[in-house]
């Protein structure tokens, strides 16, 4: 396996020699080493490699649940080819409901769109080539030493459920009858999260994509917080196919959760 340092040596993104392949174990290690600087957070490289290997054995990944892909020169032999970029796809069961309330079982193919470049930058065309071939379109962890102050050491609240809250799918119409008790409950949850973050030396708490009702209740708690719209990272997107792979009208995306990257 080689790493290209001179971008002028990169193959053209339209080259017929480019193709998708599945990495060997040796190539997986090379990929994980290449992305460790960006993704190992506070882990050492050896521990990050152990973590990456372990994640291929968890229930979500086994039994064909996860597939690893690399974009390579298809004329080169495994372990001797340059890996232009890589990603993983996951197969998950899904339930779809139409406007008439009809329910249908199906599957979705989710791509982990970290698009792990093995050698720095400059690969937007190669990335697009990989995604096109896959039929897709763009779309509690320490990030520094625990004893070092960092805004990136975060406690995430990945899902917050307020019983009876349907404001995600329809306009918020006034306050619920029990909004005071719900506000107090939410305040308790957030204060508990702050205490937990402090105990683990995490620098902030992030509540991911709260519903309109949760946002209204947060205002009433009197807690200090900041609303941030994601514009550069963790942007979820999806391509919806109908019967026989035909494109159709997009569904309504109701929950844009932390791990809804497609």
Unreliable runs: 114-139
Instruction: Give me the strand/helix succession.
Output: EHHEEEHEHEH
**Helix share, percent:** 25-40%
- Alpha-carbon distance between the termini? 29 Å
Radius of gyration: 22 Å
Shape: globular
Strand arrangement, major sheet: 1-2-3-4
Beta-strand content bin: 15-25%
Largest sheet properties: 4 strands, antiparallel
How many DSSP H or I helices? 5
Structural class: alpha+beta
Average pLDDT reading: 77
Number of separate strands: 6
Itemize the secondary structure elements and their pairings:
Elements: E1 18-21, H1 25-39, H2 45-54, E2 66-73, E3 85-97, E4 103-112, H3 124-133, E5 154-157, H4 179-199, E6 204-207, H5 212-221
Write up this protein.
- This protein is α+β, with helices and mostly antiparallel strands and about 260 residues long.
- Helix content is about 25%, strand content about 15%.
- The strands form two sheets. It has a four-stranded antiparallel β-sheet.
- Helix 1 crosses helix 2 and helix 4 (about 180-200) crosses helix 5 (about 210-220).
- The longest helix is centred in the C-terminal third of the chain and has 21 residues, at about 180-200.
- The two termini are about 30 Å apart.
């Amino acid at each position: 396996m080689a790493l290209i340092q001179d971008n002028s040596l990169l193959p053209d993104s339209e080259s017929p020699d480019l193709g998708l392949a599945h990495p060997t174990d040796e190539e997986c290690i090379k990929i994980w080493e290449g992305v460790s600087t960006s993704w190992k957070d506070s882990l050492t490289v050896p521990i990050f490699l152990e973590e990456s290997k372990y994640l291929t054995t968890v229930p979500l990944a086994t039994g064909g649940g996860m597939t690893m892909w690399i974009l390579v020169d298809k004329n080169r032999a495994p372990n001797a080819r340059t890996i232009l970029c890589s990603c993983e796809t996951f197969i998950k069961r899904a339930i779809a409901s139409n406007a008439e309330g009809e329910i249908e079982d199906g599957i979705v193919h989710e791509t982990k769109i970290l698009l792990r470049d093995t050698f720095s930058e400059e690969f937007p065309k190669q990335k697009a080539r990989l995604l096109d071939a896959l039929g897709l379109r763009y779309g509690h962890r320490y990030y520094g030493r625990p004893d070092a102050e960092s805004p990136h050491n975060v406690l995430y609240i990945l899902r917050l459920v307020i019983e009876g809250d349907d404001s995600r799918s329809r306009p918020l119409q006034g306050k619920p009858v029990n909004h005071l008790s719900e506000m107090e409950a939410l305040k308790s949850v957030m204060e508990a999260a702050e205490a937990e973050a402090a105990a683990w030396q995490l620098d902030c708490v992030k509540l991911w994509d709260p519903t309109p009702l949760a946002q209204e209740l947060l205002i009433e708690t009197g807690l200090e917080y900041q609303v941030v719209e994601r514009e550069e990272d963790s942007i979820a997107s999806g391509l919806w196919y109908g019967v026989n792979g035909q494109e159709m009208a997009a569904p309504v995306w109701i929950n844009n959760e932390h791990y809804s990257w497609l």
